[in-house]
Amino acid sequence: MTVTIRLSDEQAEALEARAATEGLSVEQWLQKLAESLKPVRETRTGADLIAALQASPHRDIDIEPPRYRFPARDVKL
């Protein structure tokens, strides 16, 4: 797959500098970056939701819905 992106001179220089810190060309650095990405899954699981909630910086927010006890009625069958 070939992808072409247009960058400003400053952005191109920043990419070259970043790649150079690892002793790589821009192409090699981008290839390394692409290889480190996880594949996108089509479906999410309950485990994904739990992991996202546990990773939240707002863990102190209570998302449990309030529970109410409803009055019982006499029912004749």
Give an overview of the whole structure.
With 77 residues, this protein is mainly alpha-helical. It has a domain of 39 residues. Helices cover 43% and strands 0% of the residues. The chain contains three helices and no strands. Helix 1 packs across helix 2. The radius of gyration is 26 Å and the shape is elongated. 0% of the residues are buried. The model has no long low-confidence stretch (mean pLDDT 86).
Topology, number of strands = 0
Largest sheet: none
Low-confidence stretches: none
Envelope shape: elongated
Gyration radius, rounded: 26 Å
Given the helix and strand composition, which structural class is it? mainly alpha
Q: Hey, roughly how much beta strand do the residues contain?
A: under 5%
What's this model, at a glance?
With 77 residues, this protein is mostly helical. It has helices at residues 9-21, 26-35, 46-55.
Task: Describe the secondary-structure layout.
Layout: H1 9-21, H2 26-35, H3 46-55
Helix pairs in contact: 1-2
Provide key terms for this protein.
elongated, mainly alpha, 77 residues
